[in-house]
Amino acid sequence: MTQLQLDVILSIDPEKRRTVLALLASQVRWDLVRFFRANPFTIHTAQGLARIVGRRVEQVEVETKALVHESVLRRLSQDEDFPPIYAYEPNADLRLLIELVEQLTDGRLDFFDELRKTLADLDQEVTARSDCPHPTARAKTASHRRHSARTHR
Description:
CATH topology: Arc Repressor Mutant, subunit A
Helix content: 55-70%
CATH architecture: Orthogonal Bundle
Number of domains: 1
Distance between the termini: 7 Å
CATH superfamily: Winged helix-like DNA-binding domain superfamily/Winged helix DNA-binding domain
Order of helices and strands: HHHEHHEEHHH
């Protein structure tokens, strides 16, 4: 990861970083996000999406439900007698985050994993900092973790 990429990630609000981490929870989930971003007016069932992205239907069903929970997709059909139909409907902030992550990963699987790990480490850092009672100790912990993230690339 380049210094510029790391700086961009560090500039993202911690809450939004958690959202990005949720979007990157699995390669299947990110594949679905990328598909819908490239085809924003598409509506599909999990079965149709599975064929399109080349994944198992069971995987896609789990990930579409998660993306509905993350407010990236909206379930259009509520009738239990028919398969759910999904549409891409993130809000403007989420659209920008998705675009940013897509630019950062540039479709590279190796960078996808590195980005996910960096975000998870930063999330742990924020949690540790909030658990640490002394401000100086919090700053030292944050500085140490950022230095480690840069040197362990």
